[in-house]
Design a protein that fits this description.
3 helices; elongated
């Protein structure tokens, strides 16, 4: 297991939200994950490992926000007139 330090200094970018306060966090990763993070930062898409990890966290935050919004919309849509079997049949047809 290798420990990497996630540097909290952020370079302004068009792709990312800016934060006023940044902190440093140390994360322990298995060597295979550390190699993956390093390869992503060396790919040219990210300036460093911290940039990559921040992007992953932002994507997770966005995904969770979308999930919560979908759950709220579903809850507010009211009761379905379909049976559970009919709903599952529709789901299975969508994924085919």
């Amino acid at each position: 297991m290798t420990k990497i330090a996630i540097n909290a200094t952020m370079t302004p970018s068009l792709f990312y939200r800016e934060y006023d306060d940044m902190a440093t966090m140390n994360v322990s990763l298995p060597d295979q994950m550390k190699t993956w993070v390093e390869s992503q930062s060396q790919s040219g898409c990210y300036s460093n490992a911290s940039d990559y990890v921040r992007d992953l966290i932002r994507r997770d935050q966005d995904h969770r926000h979308q999930l919560v919004e979908a759950l709220i919309a579903g809850e507010q849509s009211g009761d379905s007139t379909l049976s559970v079997n009919e709903i599952w049949a529709k789901v299975k047809n969508r994924s085919s």
